[in-house]
Model the fold of this input.
Amino acid sequence: MRVIISRSWEALGKVWRQESTSFKPHAACGSTHSYIDAGIELHDRYPDLSGRRVRVGQCRLVDEQCGFDYVPGTVLNAQMSMRFCVAASLRYGQALPGEFSTDRLSESGTVELAQRIELVHDAEMDDIYPAHYPGWVEVERAPGSGEFERVSRDDPSGSIANPNKEGAMIEKFHRLMTGILSEEQAVRLETMAMSLEENTARNFTGAMVYPARAAAE
Done:
């Protein structure tokens, strides 16, 4: 233990892990994130999913983790459910904490969609996961047509494999701050966070408490 702690201290301030650390842009199990990304992309293209088949391709391990039938229950149950996460991303265009509220867990349209999503075993993914977290979602182009539009991801948007990981992180921050901070305040915090080496801890923490102080005034 002493050796491990010693090595940690030796690297402190010299070795930075941010660029080699993934993050979760969605409030769900990491194994569902590529699928949520795909669902978000399909969200605007298919505002009406009535009568359209939706298919999801996954490896066996992810199916064991997340492929269970969806029945409204706890937040954790929904966060681990591939069916619910894909349905939420298709319907709402995101999967943030609000999509896992008590009302949305049992919202009839989302439950109906989640329960009819078809899970397909993609054998190629068995050899890829978990070194990478691939996934694909298909939506039927027209009800009953049997023709599908597929969106695939090799890795989720929060992965270090995504060259725009930083952009995904910033987007999540602004989505979470909607209704909490003004746009000006959010941009200020973003600017400071993206240039930490140019700011002091005092300035940064001061910017974070500013909304509460302003509200009190």
Notes: The longest helix spans residues 201-216. Confidence is low (pLDDT under 50) at residues 212-217.
